[in-house]
Request: fold
Amino acid sequence: MNKLPSLSIFFPFYNEEANIERVVREAVSAAPKFAEQFEVIMVNDGSKDRTGELADKLEREIPQCRAAHNRPNHGYGGAVKRGFREAANGVHFLHRWRRTV
Reply:
């Protein structure tokens, strides 16, 4: 399979402290199979739990990750728009997962 030269993956998160780390680490693990360079953007959409704090922690730990914070909450559509604005690479991938908690 030919790899893309670059890929931006973003996730809108709202009160997802139980899921954010697993989801982001799985994306970081899978992305090199599809692209030479990639970034994972975590859009914290005004969460009231520790989602923003965990996004900042992942940004510090994983060079390919960036946190973006909407304050106040802009809703799902606003979080998706923010993800597209933040994306630096030409191909964008947005994934909406099913909550497990």
About this structure: The chain has one domain: 4-94. Residues 75-86 form the longest helix (12 residues). The chain has a mean pLDDT of 89. The two ends are 34 Å apart (CA to CA).
